[in-house]
Amino acid sequence: MDQTASQSARTTTAIRLGVGLLQGLALFLLHHAENVKAWPATQPLVFAPLVLVALAVPFVILAGIGALRRSSLIVWALGAAAFAAYLAFHGVWRDTTPDKMPDFPVFLAIAGGLFIAHHLIQPAEAERKVVASYPAYFDITWMHGVQLALSAAFTGVFWILLYLGASLFKLIGIDAIQKLISEEAFAFPATTVMFAAAVQLTDVRSTLVRGVRTVALTLLAWLLSLMTLIAAGFLASLPFTGLEPLWKTRAATALLLTAAAHLIVLINAAYQCGTEPPPTVLKWAARIAGVLLIPIALLAAYGLALRIGQHGLTPERVFAAAFVFVAAGHAVGYAMAAFRRDAWMKTLERTNVVMAFISLALLTALFTPIADPARLSVNDQADRLARGKVKPAQFDYAFLRFDGGRHGRAVLARLKTDKNPEIAKGAAQALVWTVRPPIDAQPRFTKTTVYPAGRVLPGSLVKQDWSPSDGDSVCIYPGTTCSALLLDIDGDGNEEVLFSNGGTLDVIKQFPKDSWKKIGSASARCSGTDLDQALKSGTARMAEPVPRRDILVGDLRLAFIPFASGCAVEAPGMVSGMVPGR
To answer: CA–CA separation, 487 vs 494, rounded Å?
Structure first.
């Protein structure tokens, strides 16, 4: 029996080292083909799938050898190769001027998809079931995660030692080692072989890996109480602060999803495989955290819905919607687990398995034509234009041309023949762009909210060439989200435009020949004033004149602004509650 086990271990070692060597050679040959501009590097639709298959599939074999039956491993490796190749192919194809490699998110999708799929397959194969027991999923997934980290660290230290040795020998005039490790023909195979060796070493000492995993999870679990306290404090503060400060960050959904992800990881660190409940403090922290996930996920969904309603879909918002869906699924399952009395957080197990399948399905959909974010975004933006939700002059044609890929160009070609001449002209111009137009050529004031409600900015202001004077106000820059107040501040019968810049209003006045220029600013007397909320009230007005004498120091005039017991004391000639900036 010992001899058989020893022979099996030697065979596994040889296969893993062989796979590492073949991977290194394949990556070197592909890299060399790219350097010399030879086939397959000259065919991006072939080159990218080959690179991604060479990068990803060997990891599946390294993880599965010795754990999966030979037939199962072969079928799974072929399936993994098809998955990686198709996602890479689609990532390059979706652009009409394809690069040799797809965007970085495609790499992450392939890595994440294969990791999830492998850890759904191996436990099920080990137990000969379609769906394995939760302890099996937990044990294999977390052990391979630790193995991956240790193997990467081992490979990194290997290279540090090589460079240290090369430097030592170079001190005495021997540069052979320096030249050797600088050769790509050595670097690629050496890296992959050492990584494969590290996988084998950690696999043989699996008990040590499990020990490292247990220590890491135990340490993480004790951070759950802190994260739960932070999340609870944040949610408890919202009734007093309102949601407006959250939306002003313009990254609320991303921050909320990040908080949800941390809570999910820390809850799992406390639960582990579920066979040994943690201390009472962690048990209650996990229950509370499971419930807190619900409002966090709802806030993230609400914030995303607001952005989509205001500005439509973009690829980033499509991805965010998928993340919100995953977070919401975990939140519902964990909340149900928190309220169970018969078994502590037991529903978490089924939730994790179900959401793993759902996450894999979402990854596949998002990086294939099924739910291509570029296609969905382009169609949504074109629909908003057709329904009049965005004016032709404010439409972002550059998004379709440079961010919409093949789908965006197809829509531009259709819009080129639109009955609306303004749309047709904008689409025709975008189609001939070879680089994204400079910021001065892009439409301005597309995200400006005008007050009083129902008013619009003067046409002469919108059409003016602002490129020489962008410094007048940040609201002049294209794509800037601002508020604008129409108000006659100098009593000449003509309204000025007051752009909201944080706690300050930049005052823009029209001069002869339709020229608009900044003439001053008005700022809140007290810090922390919510100017946008004040504008929404619709009560902007001019204050009554107040006597004031300036201080003259030589030829310098200084405005004297007295202190007052409030923030609403009116200064002469300015908007109520504001004082002139100097």
So the answer is: 8
448-451 and 482-487 beta bridge pairing:
parallel
Q: Which long-range contacts (CB under 8 A, 24 or more apart) does 506-514 make?
A: 506/472, 506/473, 506/475, 508/461, 508/472, 508/473, 510/458, 510/460, 510/461, 514/460, 514/464
Contact criterion met (CB below 8 Å) for 312 and 380: yes
HSE value, Cβ hemisphere, 13 Å, CA-based, for 244: 11
Compute the distance between CA of residue 509 and CA of residue 517 in angstroms, rounded to an integer.
Answer: 6
The confidence score (pLDDT) of residue 439 equals: 58
Q: Could you read off the pLDDT of 522-546 as tens digits, one per residue?
A: 776 555 566 777 777 767 788 777 7
Characterize the bridge pairing of strands 551-553 and 504-511.
unpaired
Contact 88, 97 (CB under 8 A): no
489 touches 507 (CB < 8 A): yes
Q: Report the greatest alpha carbon distance in the chain.
A: 104
How many whole angstroms separate alpha carbon 36 and alpha carbon 434? 27
Range picked from 298-307, 512-521, 545-554 for highest mean pLDDT? 298-307
CA distances, 528 to each of 245, 448, 561, 567 (Å): 11, 22, 19, 11
E-strand spans in 271-424? Answer: none
Query: What is the Cα–Cα distance from 227 to 221, expressed in whole angstroms?
Result: 10
Task: Give the N- to C-terminal CA distance of the chain in Å, as an integer.
Answer: 90
Which residue, chain included where needed, has tokens 């080959």?
50
Q: Tell me the C-alpha distance between 378 and 401, whole Å.
A: 10
Average per-residue pLDDT in the chain?
88
Q: Copy the structure tokens of residue 481.
A: 């989200």
Structure token pair of residue 540: 């902007």
pLDDT score for 452: 85
Strands 551-553 and 556-558: antiparallel
Query: What is the average pLDDT across 2-13?
Result: 78
The string of pLDDT tens digits covering residues 57-70 is: 999 999 999 899 99
Residue with tokens 């109520």: 576
Alpha-carbon distance of 199 to 66, in angstroms, equals 12
Q: Which two tokens stand for residue 298?
A: 């709802």
Q: What element of type H or E holds 556?
A: strand 556-558
- CB-based contacts of 432, cutoff 8 Å, min separation 6: none
CB atoms within 10 A of CB 55: 19
Q: Give residues with Cβ within 8 angstroms of 101, minimum separation 6.
A: 44, 47, 48, 51, 92
**CA-wise closest residue to 328 among 409, 254, 257:** 257
Neighbours of 150 (CB within 10 A): 18
121 contacts 76 by C-beta, under 8 angstroms? yes
Residue the block writes with tokens 């944040």: 234
Q: Are 293 and 154 in contact (CB under 8 A)?
A: no
Cis peptide bond N-terminal to 49, omega within 30: no
Say if CB 378 and CB 400 are below 8 A apart.
Answer: yes
HEC string of 239-307 equals HHHCCHHHHHCCCHHHHHHHHHHHHHHHHHHHHCCCCCCCCHHHHHHHHHHHHHHHHHHHHHHHHHHHH
